[in-house]
Amino acid sequence: MITLDYADKRPLYEQTKEKLRELIINGVLKPHDRIPSVRELASKLSINPNTIQKAYHELEQEGYIYSKTAKGNYVSPIEDRAQYGSERCAELLKKLENTISELKLLGGKKDDINEIIAKIYDKGE
Amino acid sequence: MITLDYADKRPLYEQTKEKLRELIINGVLKPHDRIPSVRELASKLSINPNTIQKAYHELEQEGYIYSKTAKGNYVSPIEDRAQYGSERCAELLKKLENTISELKLLGGKKDDINEIIAKIYDKGE
Amino acid sequence: MITLDYADKRPLYEQTKEKLRELIINGVLKPHDRIPSVRELASKLSINPNTIQKAYHELEQEGYIYSKTAKGNYVSPIEDRAQYGSERCAELLKKLENTISELKLLGGKKDDINEIIAKIYDKGE
Amino acid sequence: MITLDYADKRPLYEQTKEKLRELIINGVLKPHDRIPSVRELASKLSINPNTIQKAYHELEQEGYIYSKTAKGNYVSPIEDRAQYGSERCAELLKKLENTISELKLLGGKKDDINEIIAKIYDKGE
DNA sequence: GTGGTCTAGACCACC
DNA sequence: GTGGTCTAGACCACT
């Protein structure tokens, strides 16, 4: 369900968050689905439960999941994620701007970028 | 000439590198121009000389500058930078792909991205 | 008769207590009325009987209900609840003070609070 | 500067957050002031650095402080706190409503509440 | 020395 | 067994 990449520079809890966020946004995990318990996922990924706990905690802050003590963690209904989503979008667009700027600086061509956009946006549809 | 942003999460040496690289690529600093000494720039930015040292060292590795011992640091001729440039470009395109993917996931629109591209590529030309 | 809110962070037994206390204070359940058995209520709410047991036990401590072994649980006469009520009132006033203090700190306006008070105190009368 | 109350049921990092938030909102700590380092405060309070780290991390998320690696943590300028502040206010008003509702239920008088409001809002001014 | 991440292991409340 | 908090101790990158 989730795999970690130790070559990746980002912290493990960030990778976990991203993977889960993806599964949720993509609808693989549906609202009110139960996700693996802290200890269960930690043991499957062979990392410390605290690391998963941190990932889950932040996903809860961001509105992607909610927790019931002694019950488990569950996927939030879509409306709870809207606010965070729009903030995150703004962040990403900002990041995009920086990356493209540097790319232009180094002589990157507009078409290379358009190709990537096409690849992603016209892929599955 | 260079300003640092303390709100930026990236290390100071990274910011310094980026700013210098920009000046070099843009041609503000021309091949064989002398750039400020480590201690001079450190004092201007009120940061530790070690930090500048690290920035210069990496810029040298990447082919943007070269140093003459006891003489100072100088901007490399363009041909020395080509290899790094193409590597960095590949990196940036990869990063772009990830960012755009997440953006699409969150419901970001193709047009928002195209707008940014237009803004950057059609700005100064 | 009682519904639980799983989004609520408070434990289920707390919610159960509160709901029952409300029904008792409001007079929906009258002194010496029989309340549902532990197992009955647990099954209706689809939760563990231990959870209801704990709620009933604490309500008994607080003087709201009394139990006759092998007979069931019953609403206490009003005089048995007076002591707990005044203690709880003091607690609530203390809590109120903290909340209002923080609110003022954050720039909350006196009128917003008065509006809430009006809404609650002038509602049903 | 900060003291913990071990009788308090809330987690230590929550208490730490609250105390610091108060000092910041009250203006005792001013924008861009440096606050104690993670280890320093931990040692003063005789608790684990991780606990302080958690408190600082959340305060950063909420816009009250920002951190510079290898430099320390600093109080954010006021504009960074605005968004969180208004969200928190809404939360507090909701909490207030619940508390007052229960108070009314138990026979608490409107005047007791008004007295508290007066005490807080007319205190220092 | 400073923030940030991670592990290992413990304890608690809740169900 | 589940989430949540806390401790102790380690390691890393940055300044």
Verbal overview:
The structure is a homotetramer of 125-residue chains. Chain A has helices spanning 12-25, 38-45, 49-61, 82-105, 110-121, and strands at 34-35, 65-68, 72-75. Chain A has five helices and three strands, in the order αβααββαα. The mean pLDDT of chain A is 90. Helix content of chain A is 57%, strand content 8%. In chain A, 21% of the residues are buried. In chain A, a hairpin with a 3-residue loop joins β2 and β3. Chain A is mainly alpha-helical and 125 residues long. Chain A has a three-stranded antiparallel beta sheet. Chains in contact: A-B, A-C, B-D, C-D. The interface between A and B is medium-sized, with 30 and 32 residues. Chain A binds a DNA duplex (15 and 15 nucleotides) through residues 11-13, 37-40, 47-51, 53-54, 56-57, 67-73.
Summarize the structure.
By secondary structure, chain A is mainly alpha-helical. Helix content of chain A is 57%, strand content 8%.
List keywords for this structure.
homotetramer, 125 residues, mainly alpha, 57% helix, globular, DNA-binding
Count of β-strands of chain A: 3
Spatial sequence of strands, sheet with the most strands of chain A:
1-3-2
Proportion of strand residues of chain A: 5-15%
How would you name the oligomeric state of the polypeptide chains in this document?
homotetramer
Cα-atom radius of gyration of chain A: 17 Å
What structural category do the secondary elements of chain A indicate?
A: mainly alpha
Note poorly predicted spans of chain A. Answer: none
Distance between the termini of chain A: 24 Å
Tally of DSSP helical segments of chain A: 5
Which percent bin holds the helix content of chain A? 55-70%
Q: Tell me the overall shape of chain A.
A: globular
Largest interface: A-B, 30 and 32 residues
Mean pLDDT across all amino acids of chain A: 90
Secondary-structure element string of chain A: HEHHEEHH
> Major sheet of chain A, described briefly?
3 strands, antiparallel
